[in-house]
Amino acid sequence: MTIIAEMKNIVILISGGGSNMQAIAQAALRHRWAERLGARIATVISNRPEAKGLTLAANMGLPTEVVDHLAFADRPDPRTAFDDVLRQAIDAHQPTLVVLAGFMRILTPGFVVHYEGRLMNIHPSLLPAFPGLDTHARAIQAGCWFAGATVHLVTTELDHGPILAQAVVPVLSDDTAASLAARVLTQEHRLYPQAIEQWLMQQD
Ligand code: GAR
Fold this sequence. Notes:
Layout: H1 3-6, E1 8-14, H2 19-30, H3 33-37, E2 39-46, H4 52-59, E3 64-66, H5 78-91, E4 95-100, H6 109-114, E5 119-123, H7 135-141, E6 146-153, E7 163-170, H8 177-201
Parallel strand pairs: 1-2, 1-4, 2-3, 4-5
Antiparallel strand pairs: 5-6, 6-7
Helix pairs in contact: 2-8, 7-8
The protein binds glycinamide ribonucleotide (GAR).
């Protein structure tokens, strides 16, 4: 068996900017995940061909793939058709871990169950508060003093599942959704690589 075949493959799914993906890829290099943990980022997959994160990934020398969800729009069950093709693309890499990094599609229960225990997500709120969209505007609207981000394992219930790590930031009196999002995102870039590294260290 070759060394490559023994590597723990990480597949990262993105939809847009890809800054979390980039932070994870940088941490993998800086903290020598290949040598220390036998882990590598096998590929970065986007459901949007125009996602900026694809360029970031390519610039870092990472393989990239696109499974465009719009290509399945006219199928009788577009979500399942998309998830089936996405799953095939992911499974081609025999992943130890699938990382959702700003992946903005709701996955079907069958997909989630297939990756049970090895599907991780970052959500820009202190779960269980504010699942779903517009988390920062909702935190400001609710008068929260603190906001943050949560890394969790994905279960069939949206933005639920065992919490692996959280980061907390203050909500300032003059915050807009954008300024709060930027403060949270900075913490996400620290939090997500740490949580992944810890998870990898707990694997055989
Ligand atoms: C991040 O803030 C992430 O937490 C959020 O999207 C952003 C992606 O940024 N994810 C979700 O809202 C998932 N429900 P990035 O593409 O620059 O990493």
